[in-house]
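Internal tracking record. Fields below are filled automatically when a chain is submitted to the structure queue. Please do not edit lines marked as system-generated. If the sequence contains nonstandard residues, flag them in the REMARKS field before resubmitting.
Queue: standard
Priority: normal
Entity type: single polypeptide chain
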Amino acid sequence: MTGSTATKPAALSALLRRYSDLGEPLTCAPVPRGLLNHGWRLTTTRGRFFVKQYVAADTADPAVIGRQHHATRRLARLGVPAAAPLPDRAGGTVCVLGGTGYALFPWIEGRHREGTELTEAQSRRLGALLGRVHTALARVQPPAPTVVHPSADPDRTHADIGRLLGLVRAHRRAQGPHADFDALAEHRLLERRALLRKHAHRRPPAAHGRVSGWVHGDFHPLNLLYRGDEPAAIVDWDRLGVKPRTEEAVRAAAIFFVDPDDGRLDLPKVRAYARAYRRAAGATRHEVAAAVHRVWWERLNDFWMLQWHYGRADHRSDPLFPAASALAVWWTEEYAAVREAFTR
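SYSTEM-GENERATED OUTPUT FOLLOWS
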């Protein structure tokens, strides 16, 4: 088989022995995109497959993975395009080898599409699809437990800003690489500190009660494959959990429909998407308005990309930072227009 141990999982042979009729492996190449876990495109004499290795500490519990797999298989039977794993000869879908979990999926042909590529009609279909996901999850999952979702604490955020500013300035003094990134990071941190002081009185209350439900947990362009104009598969259900459903809809729109150059949202597409989502999910305008406010506040308080860059020396999210950090500022300035796009 082509591919060295650097380009295929060491446990591949043991994994394949658990399945029937997969044929002989021919090639195994890493799939480069993905922030949490590892994946490989496997070609055998019988077809093509996706091998997933669960390495992120918060997503690697075999029992949790098994529940995710059970949900996706039931969703697929309802007609939701959820990428479901293949069962092995014993009927299991999680294989733990060397303390690491693996799963095997059919290879799904398709490509990722950014929201900038979607028409308003396709944006409408995207919103309807996410609404279907939420209603179908309510059918296939146990009743959602009562969960309280607090809003971000600005005092903690101010402490994070101070710590990150120290790291940024130390890095700039050392004249290391990423000088342009350092300059932008410092500018955005100072800007955000001022915005948080100005808008501290607008901190939303905790969310709880009927707004919570089962959600995909990470619905964005890299987790949706298109075949032509239509979604072919929703992948990476690692974050499946109980959260405010309408917040997932708002959060997804803020990723799909953000302009990568200036951080603005394409509000006509947001409007088409949100109307279709509300209709498919049975969500009220009041619920969506509350979600818009909570996600806006979350964005003001969120610095996970800088925490990865400076705290972990992990630069995979760096290309996302300019637009994401600009969006928080623009959203604050255009708050009423954004809320109107989601709720009218």
